[in-house]
User: Fold this.
Amino acid sequence: MTETVLSAPSRSSLIWRRVRENPLVAAGGAVAVVIVVVAILAPLLAPYPADAGSATHPLSVLLPPSASHWFGTDQVGRDIFSRVVYGARVSPLIAFFVILISCAVGIPLGLAAGFFGGFIDEAIMRVTDVFLAFPALLLALAFASVLPPSLTSTTLAITIAWWPWYTRLIRGQAASVAARPYVESCRALGISRMRIIFRHILPNAVTPLIVQISLDVGGVILTASALSFLGLGAQDPTPDWGLMVSQGQSYFTTQWWLVTFPGLAILITALGFNMLGDGLRDILDPRRTVRI
Amino acid sequence: MTRYLTQRVLLAIGVVAGVVVLTFLIARIVPGDPAVAWSGPHAPASEIAQVRRQLGLDRPVWVQIGKYFEGVFTGNWGTSIHTHRPVLSDLRKAVPASLELVIAALLIAVAIGVPLGLLSAAKRDRPVDQAVRVGSILGVSMPLFWMALIFQMVFFQKLHVLPVTGEYDPNVAFAHPLRTYTGMPVIDALITGNWPMLESSLSHLIMPAVVVAAYPAGVIARMVRASVLDTLGETHVQMVRALGFSERSVFARFAMKLAWSPVATVIALVFAYSLVNTFLVESIFDWPGLGNYAAASIASLDTPAITGVTLFIAIVYVVANLAVDVTQVLLDPRIKLQ
Assistant:
């Protein structure tokens, strides 16, 4: 370090500098933005928007990639490029809802467990332990297999497997903050519990929460795609990437494009969000180790 | 230490009990009446009532949970609707194949992940580190079912270098019959000295094992990197450095030793995750293991089989976690203080 620091840079400018220096965040963030933009602009980007639905074109079945069909056509003649573009609206949206509901359930429970301690803590955390005793994909699969196959069931099944991670994360944060002397003095001053929770405990948990959410997007997308692949998620004609790979399976020996492009979309999306999350963890929260 | 261990074991037993209750609940969510599903759509009301009594569905829920518990612990895990055999004996038949696949995958994952993680930590923030990090994220971001299909396309269909499905070539098995000891063809061929079968089963194992290895290899590489970098920052490692030891020996003799414990934890955990990942891979490779059984059960809405596999893997997961905790306390007594 040869540079002389005259005045301490602000926290936000420090973070911004580290973002620019971290190629993972930059690349991952770019992919994430592209996915969101594609999802929003799907009707403008897709050359054959009707093919995202139940349209069939018996005369252009299983055409290889060409200038008019960049990714070729599928078993009923639908344009795969259009379906992959519309797919950005399916599993990423599932990820959004799964994480939203998981936070809505997991955060209050974690706050209650960490802040109040004692019996409430024990009761909440022992139930959480049971859910965490299953690998997430397994629990989601078990629930999805007994629910009627649909996007709602997929979302519900994955949420059941996902909320406990947030409870555990927030509980840890809340318990460590609640034990600090300044929270102790807040209590002594007679400040209400709700105020302590919202002004002191929750803001401290925001950083690890952001990291966790960005890491989870990729995980939920992979889980949702796996459920669709096994026939437990989206159903035809929904342009879901996992379902498209599953349907293309029977043709892949001769028509490789049916499987290749939708799978590539899953990989790139999960990779982008995971790079973003991994990089953000480095920048915001360098002490935390890897969670699987 | 004894107190900590007792506490840890009791906690694990409690979690297993909770796991049994949760799988019971999953089995009961099935839309519609299980008695109707059992006796068929056109059964008369009297028969449905009889089936309901037979299945114990007329009793209060807590009695049913009690019965379910009794069954789980006495080895009665129900009968598969799909195979008409007891679920537990189906599982017993499927476990060796999955075990062979997952163990091979973990060996590959360790062989790839550990050196890459060390390299990445040694070259922190250099291009090599960035490349390894992207590679390891690629591993955990891989849709395995897609990777399996792409591998079949490339290595079987285009290059013709690897067989496409199964555990071994049935023609080779016909010419050189394999005696079954462990149920894992590679091991059985090895201990009986059946070389043609060893070659056949190994060549069939490579593709699925590499696919299943993608996820643990990524996780292990990340964990090794994070863990080595963590220990490099610890005071006694700094001390060794201050004493004038070379960077190389600080790295090899001090930092790496301490880094093993979190890595061992992660290997035990990815074992259970990889068992679940076989659900997505085995049916593609027609591998006769748990994953294939689970995928077939899901396709045929075979609830007893699905909950059986779920329960089995959850118990494996809890036991693996417990085993890791116990070994770590035995190896490093400081842990119980945390």
Summary: DSSP finds eleven helices and no strands in chain A. Residues 288-292 of chain A have pLDDT under 50 and may be disordered.
